[in-house]
Amino acid sequence: MTRKDGKFLSDGFDATERDIRVFVHLARDKDADAWRAAKAAGRLVGVNEDTPYGYGRAERMGCAIAFSHSHRETVAGAFLRIAARVALGFDFLHAWRQRTAIAGADIVWTHTESQYLAVAAVARAIGARPRLIGQTVWLMDRWPSLSFLHRALFRRLARDIDVLTFHSPLNLKSAEKAFPGQRLELVRFGVPAETTAAPRRREGRPIRVLALGNDSHRDWPCLIEAVAKAEDMNLRILSRAVPRRLARGTRNIEIGLARTQDELIAAFREATVVCTPLKPNLHASGITVIQEAVLAGVPVVATDTGGLDAYFARDEITFVPPSDAVALRAALRKLAADPDAALAQAQRAQARMRQGELGAEAYIRRHVELSREILML
């Protein structure tokens, strides 16, 4: 249904007849209004925009965007939703509450498998068939531990997804076996890359190592082992996920949080090097923090896992083997010992992001390109 001026009237879309109506279905805790308010107040820590993950950029690319929103819940309602999520493996009730918008969209974008499985289930329940891009993050890491019933359900729902996208070639390769016959695409994740801090020489002692992130694949024990007895290093970890007992008895390790964006900027400014220690994974764990550090002009040491080399070359990021505290400690010291080489590395990494192949603009543009292909526009 349209007005005479060509604007759509359906469920949150403000679009002309030429626009693609995109419904972006996100997790319940990524409500777009709450995101925008947190960004305005400086409480949204990281390189972010007014819309979640920069999806609002698509409005400049010929799309009309509507976001999922979080509904008020009673205690009983929240319990029912969470119980259903545990049983099914995805948040069906959150998606069910968006069913009108899902049905009214030309195409639905999702940020993780929890959302696209839920959208596919809701679409089947209401007899709708919106086109759907399903972004997969953690599913393939978890696939071997899933029950037969969950695997069968997920495969059945995936048949209704037009394209499954992945941030890592390792994730994509694993999915070839799990979802034979599905269209799979690599779409590299990116943060807004327009604002940068010029890389500079970072000298002085002790070596100031900064580590961030809450992903379950962070290898905090390896990093702490690498630094704990190194008198020439101070380690600052900003994470709510690291067990504090790991640093008990150490005097050169601080564990805390960056509660505002200004605190995070200050932490990057003070760091000699940013370290992203990782356990083996398939989904490019750590890529958000790595890109943020690169934009802040800080050299990076990261574990060589997850497909991170699909983003940065080996002269742009210092890669170390997984679970090797000795190699990690040596890499941190090597960068700190040669400020000119560290500066050149940081400059090369930042130049990579300025080329336009990485970042939110390329990430969202690829979503729009895929949408046009799927809709044959």
Question: Mind sketching the topology for me?
Answer:
Elements: E1 20-25, H1 32-41, E2 63-67, H2 75-88, H3 92-96, H4 99-104, E3 107-110, H5 113-126, E4 131-136, H6 139-142, H7 148-158, E5 163-166, H8 169-178, E6 184-186, E7 207-212, H9 220-228, E8 233-238, E9 253-256, H10 261-270, E10 273-276, H11 287-295, E11 300-303, E12 318-320, H12 325-337, H13 339-354, H14 360-375
Parallel strand pairs: 1-2, 1-3, 3-4, 4-5, 5-6, 7-8, 7-10, 8-9, 10-11, 11-12
What would a concise description of this structure say?
The chain is α/β, with parallel strands linked by helices. It is 39% helix and 15% strand.
Report on the structure:
It is a single chain. The chain is an alpha/beta fold and 377 residues long. It folds into 2 domains: 20-192 and 359-375, Glycogen Phosphorylase B (Rossmann fold), CATH 3.40.50.2000; 207-354, Glycogen Phosphorylase B (Rossmann fold). 39% of the residues lie in helices and 15% in strands. The protein contains 14 helices and 12 strands. The strands form 2 sheets. Strands 2-1-3-4-5-6 form a 6-stranded parallel sheet, with helices on both faces. Strands 9-8-7-10-11-12 form a 6-stranded parallel sheet, sandwiched between helices. Helix 9 (220-228) crosses helix 12 (325-337). The two termini are 20 Å apart.
